[in-house]
Amino acid sequence: MSIILITAVVILLIFNKLKLPSMIGLFLTGIVLGQFITSTSIITSISELGVIFLLFIIGLEFSIEKFSAIKHYAIVGGLLQVVLTTLIVMLLSLYVMPVNKAIFMGFLVCFSSTAIVMKLIQKKQLTHTLQGRVTLGILIFQDIAVILVLLLTPLLGGESIDLVILPSVLTKLIALALIIVVVGLFVVPRALKEAAKTKNRDLYMLLVLFICIGTTFGTTAIGISPELGAFIAGLIISHTDYAHQTLGYIQPFQDVFMSIFLISIGLMIDVNYFVSNILLIMALSLVVLVVKFIATLITGEILNIPIRTTIAISILLSQIGEFSFVLAGVGITHGLLTREVFTMFLAVSIITMSSTPFLQKITPHVVDLFKRIPYFHVDEELTMIKQEEIQSQVLEDHVIIVGFGVNGKNLSRACYHYHIPYVIVDLNPLIVEKEKALGLPIIYGNASNESVLKELKINDANCIIIATSNYESTLKTIDAARRLNPDIHIIVRTRYLKNVDEVYEAGADVVIPEEFETSIVIFTKLMDYYDKDVDEITDTIDTLRSDNYYEFRSIAPEELTTKLNENLTDLMVDSIYVKDKRKLDEYGFKKHDLTVTAVIRNNKTILGLSPKFELQHDDLILFTGSENNIDEFFKDGHESERGV
Questions:
Q1: Secondary structure (H, E, C), 386-432
Q2: What distances in angstroms separate CA 37 from CA 45, 266, 325, 341, one per listed residue?
Q3: Spatial CA neighbour of 108 closest among 161, 145, 158
Q4: 47 or 312: which leads in pLDDT
Q5: Distance between terminal CA atoms of the chain?
Q6: With the CA atoms of 47, 25, 321 and 86 taken in that order, what torsion angle do they form, in degrees rounded to the nearest 10?
Q7: Which of 156, 243, 467, 508 is least surrounded by Cβ atoms within 10 Å, i.e. has the fewest?
């Protein structure tokens, strides 16, 4: 395995320097290593796991809302494209093979590569164009159709339905469906919520893997493919509040497994066969590209899509997809493909997949050719999708608020008051559940995960405000946000002055240290107590804040004491949420030399608290103290209750 990975890294580095698609490099890695490796059982097993994760992620990303927004293109466009491609390939294949094998060959060719096409669409920022929506709709239909074809393949292979065992099979299917419904509606959401509350990533990951593998085991037990089980597992989680965070955890592993899957395809290529039949392979590859182009072109004409857009879509969908390899393996098992035909199919598939990035670049030249045909009226630019067909939830020029503690709540109220579009992300499942029920635009997730930021429409956002207390997560969020949207304005709240420089270096535009601002407030109150002139106070504060807090950060502690005329510069403000009814003195604030300043209940601030004050569920306790004392307090069993 180490030889495979080292070879892949070297080849991909070379391909990156040459600016060639990494996918071709992965195929080439497999082809090169195939000349030296005789046993491929381990890598084949890992690649199959990669396919299971791919189907799990497709189920995870699937949503009724997303589907309904493009249902016309998905149902009509997808059905037309799949049926037309299958029909044309079947008719051509009838000259050399029987009907059942010809139909199966049509199924193999009709699917396109979701991974390749979606990466190209995102790279070219075509998601909200008509081209992007139609392409996505057809791909979604294909992904669902794969599941149906996997179920039909045994019948094409000649297996008959045994009527004697049919009642038993139906009983198992109904039982499985009921179990999935019950587990999906009640057990899984509850289990994910409890795992999320622990904030233990390892526990959460193990639970997700258990759901995925457990579902595949259940479907396999009644004779349904594990791929379908993985898709169902993804669907179950997709309807919970934890889908985006789950995707963020799983996706990096899926990319690795998918890379190994592509390498395994290259490993199966017989180089001698490829060289001996190179002309036939290239000719068949050209036939596949032309057939799929024509089928998609006809689909676009029926859907009344502008011809320039249809041409672009037809080129994007002209390759054979990764699921066709899975289907081909099943076809061999049921006698629908011979080893020689399978080898030829692999070679043709690799050629069509590898050609896609290059074919997309020549789209303008293909459009110019169609301009010469009188029948086609070529529009001059790619069409944007009609506004009414875009989901109403699409955000643009909005603010992303990371963390929904006191700062996050105040920010959301301000955005709402001034009609600034905003969306919130928080890692506390209780807060997310409560605020979502009240109608707030909030999702569960860690903003340092790219998949979560993409769900928050980071590319279309104007500003992101990071108001969490986890410093390491803050730096990761800045890095991810800046990579996904280099122009976004990043405002960060940090607890300590010592972190300000590092946060700026990480990519933040504005950094507000809580330690500094607390001392400014104390200074203002003190000067007001001594009846100092308001303008004088303002000038002093402006001086302290000037030059990005440079003066304040570089000043010695003893000078700072003199400058502010008080001894409380190490005072910190923090908060905790109340989980159960109890009295204030039960928290042990006095033990850690902390001072409770207020309790916030139902958006009302309560002052003048006695030690026996009765606290209620979801009260927010505000308190002050030194940094060390606050840290000791949270270590004393209160970390899970931290408010901001």
A1: CHHHCCCCCCCCCEEEECCCHHHHHHHHHHHHCCCCEEEEECCHHHH
A2: 15, 12, 21, 22
A3: 145
A4: 312
A5: 45
A6: -130
A7: 156
463-466/489-494 β-pairing: parallel
For residues 608 and 217, which has the higher predicted lDDT (pLDDT)? 217
The rounded mean pLDDT for the chain is 79
CA-CA distance, 285 to 313, in Å (whole number)? 18
pLDDT tens string 237-270: 888 888 888 887 877 776 777 777 778 788 878 8
pLDDT, tens digit (0-9, with 9 covering 90-100), for 535-559: 767 776 666 655 445 544 444 444 4
Cβ atoms of 310 and 301 closer than 8 Å: yes
Q: Characterize the bridge pairing of strands 604-606 and 595-601.
A: antiparallel
Alpha-carbon distance 295 to 110, whole Å? 9
pLDDT of 17 > 50? The answer is yes
Tokens of 215: 């579902």
Q: 């030059």: which residue's tokens?
A: 547
Residue 159, class by beta-carbon neighbours within 10 Å (0-12 exposed, 13-18 middle, 19+ buried)? exposed
3-class secondary-structure state, position 442: strand
E-strand spans in 407-559?
422-426, 442-444, 463-466, 489-494, 510-513
The total of other beta-carbon atoms located within 10 Å of residue 635's CB is 10
3-state secondary structure 62-85: CCHHHHHHCHHHHHHHHHHHHHHH
Q: Length of the chain, please?
A: 644
- Structure confidence by residue, pLDDT tens digits, 560-579: 434 444 444 456 777 888 88
Scanning the structure block, which residue is given the tokens 């308190």?
Answer: 623
- pLDDT tens for 453-462 read 888 889 889 9
**Measured in whole angstroms, how far is the alpha carbon of residue 119 from the centre of its chain?**
13
Closest CA to 89 of 115, 72, 71, 109: 109
